Queue: 2 jobs
Job 1
Amino acid sequence: MCADFFADLITPAPAVTKPGPSLRGRLASLDRRVFEFAAGSNWPGAERVLPRLSRAANHGVLWFGIGGALALSGSPKARRAAVRGIASLAVASATINTLGKRSVRRARPILDPVPLARRLKRQPFTTSFPSGHSASAAAFATGVALESRGLGAAVAPLAFSVAASRVYTGAHFPGDVLVGAALGVGAAFAVRGLVPTRDQMPTPGRPLVDDVPALPGGEGLVMVVNTNAGTPEKVKALRDALPAAEFVEFTGGDLVPVLQKAATHARALGISGGDGSVNTAARVALEHGLPLAVLPGGTLNHFAYDLGVEDAGDLVRAVQGGDAVAVDVGRFHSAETSGIFLNTFSLGAYPELVHERERWSARVGGRLADVVAAVHVLRRDHPLNVRIGGSDRKLWLLFAGNCTYRRMGLTAGRRASLADGLLDVRTVGGGRLPGFRLLAAALSGPLSRSPFHTATRMTRLRVDGIAPGTPLAYDGEVSPCGPVLTVEKEHEALRVYRPLTIL
């Protein structure tokens, strides 16, 4: 027994195997080695550029500046790219600052390996993982690229340089930059999931028609240009591309006689202007049985954009190829006035808002007039009293869209079809908190119902008991309404040129 005891004492104990570093530890070690290698490498020409670029991207200033320049360029595609890029940046920044920085408390790199000339004058004090600068850069560049590959290709090198600058200046480890960039790309695609890009949207304006002439060089097209619309660059591009077309300038007064004269010798009637001008041209085109060519020249241009016509190139392809669609037209009739609408028709708060804005704009200017008009309209405690379907109703708004809108929205609504044969009718009930009720209706989709509003689709609407002098609005124009109003559809009544493909 003693022998066994001493044998145990002199027998060596089995070796204890220490566990190896975890995957996280190995990745952190690799990240540090790559950072040290980058710090010790010579980056030709980067010393003057990258630190300045990194500072310029603080708080997204660089990307807001580029977005502003794109928005002011006058190109609808560039404006969409700017809005999508900024929205993607906002989502990425919010995600990084609320979740990313707080979930992993990683210290910033030690700056000993980084040459003094490279370092930022003010070192960031937040945690290192992930890189917010890289996330913002990737989000903005990806958002822009999802709307325009060409603009995205132009922005991408700048975004890459900003991300690289974060390692170059010692602000981040390479892993911080890679994860931040991945989150930025994900944010851009998340925004696209909520708000589809133009090429994801269904092509509106069906069916295609084959009874519209192709006009090589624009021969037979008479284009009336509203010079007050402010799109001379688009008109010049159209003139250059369609040298055989006739261009007639309209500087003010009554647009109808100008369009009537143009229609007498045209194979196709064209209009360059806003939605109001397009509405007038559509009436003349219907009267003369002519196809309509639309070049957007106003502020909103709902009809042209829903057609897929944003610039001169879109219209040139359609006119020269004879590519056109049949679209619906809305009509309204009352004792006071009658007409058509290609986009929307409304009674209640919106016509009053337009009326008040026109009354105040001469006194306080356009932008301030919008605010003053909104305050005046929303403070009034007299909703519209009407009779619909035999029932008395109190309404803040009655809206009828020519075809179904996905949203009335805080931004411009879009239509998946311009020939569905339906009116998109929405009503906002009278009662307290008109502003809240109108906002709820604006954010609602088609066929939705709530205590504040209803949305239905129909082919004909009759409204009785309208007070004398009540304004109505159609495609941005305002007129007085009679006591009885009917709104109905003319299915596929108008032929309009539009490109078969959206580039």
Job 2
Amino acid sequence: MSPDFYLVLGILIAGFSIPSILSAVSDRRAPRASAITILIAGGLILLAIQSQPGGYSLEEIPEVFVRVIASFT
């Protein structure tokens, strides 16, 4: 799999875990599952940055999303 796919997957997982974190905090529970998903997302993003020569800039992230979606269609 390409570093672009790892980056997009990590960002999506991190985005989907935010509502889970907010729900756990509002119910006064420990966000254990959310913390694990954030660690997984961070690991995927770190793997993508280390695998890509030169890393990624913030301006490249929308282009990366388009490339990954285009590879599926």
